[in-house]
């Protein structure tokens, strides 16, 4: 029995509320169980310098966690004077994941920055950030299309992410913090709406895993990402 009482293949409740900030071109609050993340997308009318005069756009991301997003206070990284390695790794993952669903030539020479701010954490914050970040990105791109700034839709597919792992000897979907902290194997799966893989992060935290177990986790991830994509569709209407 999982601590939450969920079945092995049961994800946490998912909700996505759009338009949660006044100024951002796209925004949402995604809740995956007790993990809550505010995602905003900002359109900048010029690309980063390394893409100047290439005709290509760029999507990048920044990630952060509020001090009391967890059960004990975490010092603000700004106060420490630098980002942690974990933060840098996560925001690079979010950026890579979102770019995989974008035709950068159709986006044109502009940049969209997706900010993911964790206001409450209970495991899977990077996965929730990717899933909610896509919604914010979708809404920002819709604004570009509506104003005529671009003529064709640069978003080629949905992008969502979910965690899976082996907890108490059983493959389970969508780990919360209690499960994640005790899992023998932990993995994050980033996928498109067409079940194409973007990135897989898997590691043996306390016990090695077999190929058969990895394939079972992948099957769970496909079902989990399908549920997240359905929530994205419901939030943005497509």
TrEMBL record:
Phosphate binds at residues 86, 124-126. The keyword rRNA processing applies. GO terms for molecular function: 3'-5'-RNA exonuclease activity; tRNA binding; tRNA nucleotidyltransferase activity. PANTHER family: EXOSOME COMPLEX COMPONENT, EXOSOME COMPLEX COMPONENT RRP41. One of its GO terms (biological process) is tRNA processing. Keywords: Nucleotidyltransferase, RNA-binding, rRNA processing, Transferase, tRNA processing, tRNA-binding. Phosphorolytic 3'-5' exoribonuclease that plays an important role in tRNA 3'-end maturation. Removes nucleotide residues following the 3'-CCA terminus of tRNAs; can also add nucleotides to the ends of RNA molecules by using nucleoside diphosphates as substrates, but this may not be physiologically important. Probably plays a role in initiation of 16S rRNA degradation (leading to ribosome degradation) during starvation. The keyword Transferase applies. This is Ribonuclease PH. Belongs to the RNase PH family. Residues 11-140, 159-223 form the Exoribonuclease phosphorolytic domain. The lineage of its organism: Bacteria, Pseudomonadati, Pseudomonadota, Alphaproteobacteria, Rhodobacterales. It comes from Neotabrizicola shimadae. Homohexameric ring arranged as a trimer of dimers. Its EC number is 2.7.7.56. It catalyses: tRNA(n+1) + phosphate = tRNA(n) + a ribonucleoside 5'-diphosphate. InterPro entries: ExoRNase_PH_dom1, ExoRNase_PH_dom2, ExoRNase_PH_dom2_sf, PNPase/RNase_PH_dom_sf, Ribosomal_Su5_D2-typ_SF, RNase_PH, RNase_PH_bac-type, RNase_PH_CS.
């Amino acid at each position: 029995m999982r601590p939450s009482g969920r079945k092995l293949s049961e994800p946490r409740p998912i909700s996505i509320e759009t338009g949660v900030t006044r100024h951002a071109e796209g925004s949402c609050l995604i809740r995956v169980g007790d993990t809550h993340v505010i995602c905003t997308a900002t359109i900048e009318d010029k690309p980063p310098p390394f893409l100047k005069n290439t005709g290509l756009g760029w999507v990048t991301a920044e990630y952060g966690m509020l001090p009391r997003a967890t059960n004990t206070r975490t010092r603000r990284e700004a106060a420490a004077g630098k980002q942690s390695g974990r933060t840098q790794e996560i925001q690079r993952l979010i950026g890579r994941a979102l770019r995989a669903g974008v035709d950068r030539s159709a986006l044109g020479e502009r940049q969209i920055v997706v900010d993911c701010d964790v206001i409450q954490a209970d495991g899977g914050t990077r996965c929730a950030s990717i899933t909610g970040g896509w919604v914010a990105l979708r809404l920002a791109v819709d604004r570009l299309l509506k104003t005529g700034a671009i003529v064709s839709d640069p978003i080629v597919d949905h992008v969502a992410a979910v965690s899976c792992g082996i907890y108490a000897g059983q493959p389970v979907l969508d780990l919360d913090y209690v499960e994640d902290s005790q899992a023998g194997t932990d993995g994050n799966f980033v996928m498109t709406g067409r079940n194409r893989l973007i990135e897989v992060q898997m590691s043996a935290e306390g016990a090695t895993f077999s190929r058969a177990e990895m394939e079972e986790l992948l099957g769970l991830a496909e079902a989990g990402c399908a549920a997240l994509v359905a929530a994205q569709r419901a939030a943005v209407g497509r």
